[in-house]
Specification:
Length: 149
């Protein structure tokens, strides 16, 4: 349990740290870290229960995308400010590093295995963001129709 709490704190700090690197406004740093933590918790929970690479990253990206839109409306800031730091814990940096390392060492089969994981994870995160945007557009359309009636 202690190790899990340490992971959560590190994910929160990674969201804040990346926000500082990309010069996020200071009033958005805390909530960007919370958004990253919530997205990672969804990823971790689905990875622990279902396993695999696609579903956990898809749902993590989906939650981060939906929360970013909600937070952006609440804080009256662009949603991209909360999207990017939220993605940091989900980015497949380790697999990308191992892929390049194995290409350099001549282990092409292992390198392509890692590369396929990178593509799968990145595609799942992107698809989660696309679905989050679709959910937002549908919600806006429903709100407009209800306002007319």
């Amino acid at each position: 349990m202690t190790f899990f709490i340490i992971k959560c704190i590190c994910v929160y700090l990674s969201g804040i740290g990346f926000g500082l690197i990309v010069n996020l406004p200071h009033r958005a740093l805390n909530i960007a870290g919370i958004n990253a933590t919530i997205g990672w918790l969804v990823y971790y929970w689905i990875f622990s229960t279902w396993g695999g690479l696609g579903a956990p990253n898809f749902f993590g990206g989906l939650v981060i995308g939906i929360l970013s839109v909600i937070i952006a409306r609440w804080k009256k800031m662009p949603s991209i400010l909360f999207d990017v730091p939220g993605l940091v814990p989900l980015v497949p940096g380790g697999q990308a590093y191992n892929s390049i390392k194995n290409f350099a060492l001549g282990n092409y089969q292992v390198a392509f295995n890692y590369l396929s994981e990178v593509v799968w994870i990145a595609g799942s995160i992107a698809l989660g963001f696309i679905v989050a945007e679709l959910v937002n557009k549908i919600r806006q359309k429903i709100r407009r129709v209800q306002a007319r009636n």
